[in-house]
Design goal:
The chain is built from 14 helices and no strands. The radius of gyration is 21 Å and the shape is globular. 76% of the residues lie in helices and 0% in strands. Belongs to the nucleotide-sugar transporter family. SLC35A subfamily.
């Protein structure tokens, strides 16, 4: 019993570290990758490559699940993808939404400093909650509605701190970049892209959760479906957004070891999170997200000439508080037995799959 309890405690700490590092390092790496000196890679190609890495990784994991037998792997893929065309077509919707979302996140990271990006992207909690009410007819607790209000106020405070920069009283400073390096900074564009990504994240997540109810498909097989169907949308995005540059410079223009690391981090990091998230309760997830925001702020001070102000600190504090309040469970606080909440298992399984596709 003691060994089991200690093992469970270790898994929780591992979950905390993994979730924190994934949230913080990805945002910082995306910002650095889009603002560093040198040739700028095309973000649309990075999104496609991340899907390819995710597809290859998921195929290996399903191969292991099937006892390292290629015949079983082929049969499983045929049974899941080919023999269930309607289910496969349904996956096209979240696949397309996730591709657009990931491209928007690169746009946001190109124009917002890492700390502001990290805080703003927490609005996905709001969009997910709204779509859960509208699509799944889920009822939110009063504390959750209060948390959503705090979240909006906190993000608004952070953004207003940003707009104050023009008058010399800004909470954050744009990263200094040599002329010609990285895209010209446009905070309105960055914030709009982050809002769009939050909207798509909420819509795709709830749609996916609704579709997954009662489905008996492993998380890795589901990711194969998602990545496989995401590739055509990703390539189409490349052609539409960057067709001229692709023709002139090539698909891998601007790629180096750091870009490869960023692609792998985006792809494999999400899969790792999907494995450990089942050991993390709401409080631990709140700690992980909060620590990620704090790490992003501190790192941005040293890496990106970020200047912290009282208004930004208050806004970030409200966002962190809203995260904890949204995950607060009054029943558990009163001593209710864990695991008795309705549909908790189904929601946890859906969350594992969603986090596997999250940036």
């Amino acid at each position: 019993m003691k060994v089991t309890a200690a093992h469970g405690s270790n898994l929780k700490y591992l979950s905390l570290v993994t979730l924190t590092l994934q949230n913080a390092i990805l945002g910082l790496s995306m910002r650095y990758g889009r603002t560093r000196p040198g040739d700028l890679f095309l973000s649309s190609t990075a999104v496609v490559m991340a899907e390819l890495v995710k597809l290859a990784t998921s195929l290996v994991l399903v191969y292991l699940e099937e006892g390292k037998h290629f015949g079983r792997l082929r049969a499983a893929l045929h049974q899941t993808i080919v023999k269930q065309p309607l289910d496969t077509l349904k996956i096209c919707v979240p696949s397309m939404l996730y591709i657009i979302q990931n491209n928007l996140l690169y746009v946001s990271a190109s124009h917002l400093d890492a700390a502001t990006y990290q805080v703003t992207y927490q609005l996905k909690i709001l969009t997910t909650a709204v779509f859960a009410v509208l699509i799944l007819r889920r009822r939110l607790l009063p504390t959750q509605w209060a948390a959503l209000v705090l979240l909006v106020v906190g993000v608004a405070s952070v953004q207003l701190a940003q707009t104050g920069e023009d008058s010399g009283t800004a909470a954050t400073r744009q990263q200094s970049m040599p002329a010609g390096d990285g895209p010209e900074q446009n905070r309105l564009l960055g914030f709009s892209a982050a809002l769009g990504a939050c909207f798509l994240s909420g819509l795709a997540g709830i749609y996916f959760e609704k579709m997954l109810k009662g489905a008996d498909i492993s998380i890795w097989m589901r990711n194969i479906q998602l990545s496989l169907l995401s590739l055509p949308f990703g390539l189409l995005t490349c052609a539409v957004n960057d067709g001229a540059q692709l023709a002139a410079r090539g698909f891998f223009f601007g790629y180096d070891a750091f870009v490869v690391y960023l692609v792998v981090l985006q792809a494999v990091g999400g899969l790792i999170v999907a494995v450990v998230v089942k050991y993390a309760d709401n409080i631990l997830k709140g700690f992980a997200t909060s620590l990620a925001i704090i790490i992003s702020c501190v790192a941005s001070i040293y890496l990106f000439d970020f200047s912290l102000s009282l208004q930004f600190t208050v806004g970030a504090g409200l966002v962190i508080g809203s995260i904890f309040l949204y995950g607060y469970d009054p029943a558990a606080a009163k001593g209710a037995k864990p695991g008795v909440r309705p549909s908790a298992k189904a929601l946890a399984e859906a969350e594992e799959r969603l986090l596997a596709e999250k940036v």
